[in-house]
Task: structure prediction
Amino acid sequence: MKAWLLSLACLAAPTGAVADNVPRINIEMLCRARSADDRLMKLPEAQSVADCLQDEKNSREKLGTVWPATAASIRARCRADAAALGTLSYLDLLTCLQLAEDIKPASSTPKANKRSPNR
Result:
């Protein structure tokens, strides 16, 4: 099933000028595949298809505001990481961008002048 998800990721990943836009992901197919994987492995369903769809829709909405403000190199890395893992979801992309933002080096701003203590 991971091979199928990898194929899905490759097909969903945009190329060229379209790469500046949030990738288009068939979230219904993604959520159904996750549910089917759980059933195939005889695991309890981690999340219902309906809950998965709602999470992905919410993540897509948030991603729409974060994506354009994120450097193209970070967007490309997050997309490539998801494809390498065989997953591509809005939630995964959003998480990747948020983590990249959290670990980004602090900007080099001049330090405020320290006041000398009053004597």
Observations:
- The helical segments are 2-12, 27-40, 49-66, 72-85, 90-103.
